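Page 42, continued from yesterday. The earlier attempt failed because a stray header line got pasted into the input along with the sequence. Redoing it now with the clean sequence only.
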Amino acid sequence: MSSRSGSGRRPSAGTASSAGSTELEERLGHLFSDKKLLTRALTHASASGPNSNERLEFLGDRVLGLICAERLHELYPKDDEGDLALKFNHLVRAEACAAAAEAAGMAEHLILAKSEAGSGGRRKLQILAGACEAVIAALYLDGGIDAAKVFIRRYWTDAFAALSAEMRDPKTRLQEWAQGRGAKSAPPVYKVVGRSGPDHAPVFSVEVSVPGKTPEVGTGTSKREAEQDAARKMLSSVGKQV
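This time it went through. Structure tokens are written below.
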């Protein structure tokens, strides 16, 4: 399948070119019979509320979950339900979907309002993650479950490779460690101590403290990411494997 040549210009925020769609289809691994379905999957609510990708996002989330659950069931026959659930949560989280969207080159094809595009919308985690789920739904509706599987197995390779026996996130592990300290037991306390960068790409600094230990500061592009980084540093400082 070859892309048709175009003018070389990127499509405007409110349009999608045929050449661009064909190029993206090659990356997705599926030639759409219904081109409008792919266009809708790439349309953010800021550009067109009634024709946005939100309904497709709802469906794609479920299709992604089914395919990941099926694959985990195949790969980890000895894991119990709890262990599978931890791995599953890692695979279907927004970060994994956004990473897949980036790898597939969806960002430049997103259809956004000019204001959203101008504020860095093509790099926003939630917009990328939502578009990825919507595209999965479009693949499913146009080509069936096999088309969705081809895409997911291609762009979730790193996420599956990162799975391990210990899938609890750092905040959960730090909470459990703190609760197991007997008389010294007290939950970790997180506090935002700084924010820098532009509104569309902020960097947060979060401090975590537990009684009797030196506070640690973590950074990230969201408060959650900064909290996880701070918890990871605290676990390292108290001698727990990260």
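Notes: The chain has two domains: 18-161, 170-237.
Reminder to self: strip header lines before submitting.
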